[in-house]
Amino acid sequence: MPKASSGWDDDDDVPLASMGNSKGAAQATSAPARALAPKAKEEKKDREVRQRKPQPSKSDFDDFKPSSNRRSSSGKQTLPEYVQANMGNIIVGTVVLVLIYGSIVSDGTNFNTDESASRIDPYKALGLSTAASDKEIKAAYRKLSLELHPDKNADQSEEDKAKFDEVTQGYKILSDPEKKKKWLNHENVDDKGIPSDTLTLTDETAHELNKGAWLLLAYADWSSECWDLAETWEKVGKDLGRYVHVARFNYEKSPKLAKKFQTFSVPMIYCYVDGVRTPFLGEPNHVNVTLFITKCLTESAEVIRDSSAGMFLENQDQRVKAMLFAQQGMVKLRLAFRSMAVQHKHVMDFAEVTYIGSEAMRALFGVNEEPAIVFIKEKGSQPLKYTGKMTQVKLAALFQQHQHHWTPRLNEHNFKSLCGAGLLGTQPCVVYLTQGGPPSVGVMETLRNASSLDLDAMAASTVDRAPTTYGWVDLAEQTEVSKAFGGNKAQVVALDALTKTFAPYDGPVTAEDLKDWAETFRGRLESDMDPLAGPLTFVHEARASGSWRQWLRQLTPHLMTTIAVVAAWLLWYALHSLWSDLKMTGKKDKLKKVIEKGRAKIVEGETRKLSKWEVLEKQNSEARDKKRMVEEERDAKRLAIEAEAAAAAARDAEAQKVRAAEAAKQAALAAREQPHAKLPVQTPKSQNKKIVEVTDVELKRAIRDIVAAANLATTTKSSIRLALQAKYPDLDLLPRKDLVQSEIAAAVSARMQ
Question: Which of these, 28, 275, 483, 741, has the minimum number of CB atoms within 10 Å of its CB?
Answer without folding.
Answer: 275
